[in-house]
Amino acid sequence: MAKIIYFGTEGNGRAGHYPMGIDKGLTHEECKIWTECDNETWSNNIYKNPGRHLIKHHGVVYTNYAVPFSVDDERGGSHTEVFWEGIHSEEEMIELIKSNTFLKKQFKM
User: Fold this and answer.
1) Sheet with 80-85, side-by-side order of all strands
2) What is the C-alpha to C-alpha distance for residues 96 and 109, in angstroms, rounded to an integer?
3) Which pLDDT score is estimated for 86?
4) Strand, coil or helix: what is 42?
5) pLDDT value, residue 66
6) What is the enclosing helix (H) or strand (E) of 81?
7) Domains of the chain by residue range
8) Which of 8, 94, 96, 99 is buried most, with the most CB atoms less than 10 Å from its CB?
């Protein structure tokens, strides 16, 4: 499985949230695991506490960086996230985002 996973819009002007492996592709089954992040409880937490979070997802620890918007989706509850396996500082997460053209655009950095 990918160690860096993006979750948000595809960057093509279409609404909707999708998982995408940044360092490696995701299988159909892996995509199902990451779509679990698209729920009201998860979105509400991002709106209340944007930024860096540590999570355990299916037994693996990830650092999550999340913002309460999507560049392609103006609907309420939209969010953009990146998950990086392991524990990383907020500065590392921001540097990761800024170093990737796609992520930089999606996070408006």
Assistant:
1) 18-21, 4-8, 80-85, 60-67, 51-57
2) 11
3) 98
4) helix
5) 96
6) strand 80-85
7) 4-106
8) 8
Give how far Cα 53 sits from Cα of 11, 31, 83, 93, Å: 23, 21, 9, 10
CA distances from 83 to 7, 47, 65 (A): 8, 17, 7
Q: Quote the pTM value.
A: 0.91
In this structure, are strands 80-85 and 4-8 parallel, antiparallel, or unpaired? antiparallel
How far is the C-alpha of 43 from the C-alpha of 80, rounded, in Å?
A: 10
Question: Given this model, what pLDDT does residue 12 score?
Answer: 73
For 13, other C-beta atoms within 10 Å of its C-beta total 9
For position 13, what pLDDT does the model report?
A: 67
